[in-house]
Each structure stands twice: as structure tokens, then as C-alpha cells.
Write a structure and sequence with these properties.
Radius of gyration: 18 Å
Number of domains: 2
CATH topology of the largest domain: Rossmann fold
CATH superfamily of the largest domain: Response regulator
CATH architecture of the largest domain: 3-Layer(aba) Sandwich
Strand content: 15-25%
Largest sheet: 5 strands, parallel
Number of helices: 8
CATH class of the largest domain: Alpha Beta
Order of helices and strands: HHHEHEHEHEHEH
Oligomer: single chain
Length: about 170
């Protein structure tokens, strides 16, 4: 698990694990804590990272984004549905990218996309739609709403990295 934590790259997570390890009182735990703190020192500070708003009603997907995106150089804010995401955006938070599930309760990804595209402060924010939908009708609706790209669930870290590289040069 220490290797996975070290790979995540999120400075806050690295420090939290290092703190816990430091209290264990063994040489091995102290060595792991030192390694994680060294990794944290080399991690990009949040201010230098690109910001992603990840929106999904699946706690597993939100955990995936929070564990993977920091390792790809992104700080991540999560929301469980489009309405929560819109509330975050309406609070004037700016993001470099929004990754949204297409089908969510309260407000789906298509409606969120429409709101974002209609708001001058966020209209140019790229939106990556993650979906299990393959019906052309749904994809067409999302495209008309203004999504920038698609990821078909389930997807790999490499597929996410590739799409992020395409959308954010």
C-alpha cells in the first residue's frame, strides 16, 4: 500500500500517511514516512496543479478520480451530481477541466454541460463526459450540449491520461 500511496502524488495524502507512519515507532515505518515526505516535497503544490472538478454519483468513481488525478498532475474537487457541481462552479471556483458522468440523479451531466456552456465565467472550460452510454442518441445530445470529449466506462488510467493530454495541451 505504501507504493500506491507514494504513486498518488497528492501532497495532503502523502503527509497524512507519513504522519501516521511516524507514530508507529518502528524503523521500517519511519523509513516509509521519510520516503513519503520526500515524495511530497517533490510533488507539485496545488497552486501549480491544474484543477479538475470530477462529478459522478458513484463513490467508486469519485475515489478513482481522487486517487489517480493527483498522480497525473491535477488537484481534484469532487461532486456527487450535477447540481452539487453547479453550486461549486456558481461559487466562482474556476477549473481547468470538468469530468462528468452522463447519468446522475438530481442533475445529469448533459444539463450540467448546458449550464456551464451558458455561463460566461465557465463557458470555455473543457468538459469530458464519462459514460456507459453507447446509444448514438445520448452521445449526440451530449455533443449538442457542448461536451469536449468522451470516455466510455469502464476506462483505464491510460485512457484517461490520453484524453486529458488531447484536451489540455
Amino acid at each position: 500500500i505504501i507504493d500506491e500511496v507514494a504513486r498518488c502524488g497528492d501532497p495532503d495524502i502523502l503527509e497524512a500517511f507519513a504522519r501516521v507512519l511516524s507514530t508507529q515507532g518502528t524503523e521500517e515505518a519511519a523509513a516509509h514516512a521519510t520516503r513519503l515526505r520526500a515524495r511530497r516535497a517533490g510533488a507539485a503544490p496545488d497552486a501549480a496543479r491544474r484543477r479538475v472538478l470530477a462529478v459522478d454519483d458513484s463513490t467508486a468513481m469519485l475515489a478513482f478520480y481522487k486517487s489517480v488525478l493527483p498522480g497525473l498532475g491535477f488537484s481534484t474537487v469532487t461532486a456527487e451530481n450535477g447540481q452539487d457541481a453547479w453550486d461549486i462552479l456558481d461559487g466562482s471556483d474556476c477549473f481547468d477541466l470538468i469530468v462528468a458522468d452522463m447519468n446522475m440523479p438530481v442533475m445529469d451531466g448533459i444539463e450540467l454541460t448546458r449550464l456551464v456552456r451558458g455561463d460566461m465565467a465557465h463557458a470555455d472550460t473543457p468538459i469530458l463526459m464519462a459514460t456507459t452510454e453507447s446509444a448514438g442518441e445520448q452521445v449526440e445530445l451530449a455533443q449538442r450540449a457542448g461536451v469536449t470529449g468522451f470516455l466510455k466506462k469502464p476506462f483505464t488510467v491510460e485512457a484517461l491520461r490520453s484524453e486529458l493530454s488531447r484536451i489540455l495541451p
